[in-house]
Write a structure and sequence with these properties.
Layout: H1 3-13, H2 16-19, H3 28-32, H4 37-42, H5 44-63, H6 66-98, H7 105-133, H8 143-165
Helix pairs in contact: 5-6, 5-8, 6-7, 7-8
Length: 169
């Protein structure tokens, strides 16, 4: 086997003799079982979908455009659905990183506000899902204050998460 093939096999299979103690970036265990990496990566999807959905919902309300309303609804429903894996990976990160230790301080606040954020995403998503199923149903006016409350709670949750990850230090 040539040297190039040996190095390629070492990179793909994680042969310890060539890599020493270095973590193999191509090892599926490194990709899928890093202690908290999935939560940090996945959290951006529901946040972006929700904020985009709220922006389209506000624009559809101001411009009276049904197409914008549909785009907003699909974004908000997608945000609600994408919150499930984020919660799972957040709870797994807690279990792996802290081995199920009792939460306190910023981590406890992040968990509480994260669950509140998810609940608000699901409520808003359900409201919009009803109108997607039956376009004749009018969106309730309470949705705008609910969406804006959710934006504030998501922002606070993300701010706390930034302290946990070291970004806001």
């Amino acid at each position: 086997m040539s040297l190039a093939m040996t190095i390629l096999a070492a990179l793909l299979l994680g042969t310890p003799s060539l890599l020493g103690s270095m973590t193999n970036p191509f090892d599926p265990r490194t990709i899928f079982f890093a202690h908290h990496a999935q939560h940090v990566v996945l959290i951006h999807f529901p946040i972006a979908l929700f904020l985009t959905g709220v922006a389209f919902d506000l624009a559809s309300r101001c411009l009276k455009q049904p197409t914008l309303r549909a785009v907003a609804s699909w974004n908000l429903v997608a945000a609600a659905l994408s919150a499930f894996p984020v919660i799972v990976t957040g709870l797994l990160a807690w279990q792996w990183a802290l081995e199920g230790e009792r939460l306190k301080g910023i981590l406890l606040l992040h968990l509480v506000f994260g669950l509140i954020s998810s609940l608000l995403l699901w409520i808003v998503g359900y409201i919009h899902l009803r109108t997607l199923r039956n376009p004749a149903v009018a969106l309730p006016q309470i949705r705008i204050p609910l969406e804006l409350l959710a934006v504030a709670v998501i922002g606070l949750t993300g701010h706390l998460g930034g302290f946990l990850s070291g970004v806001n230090v």
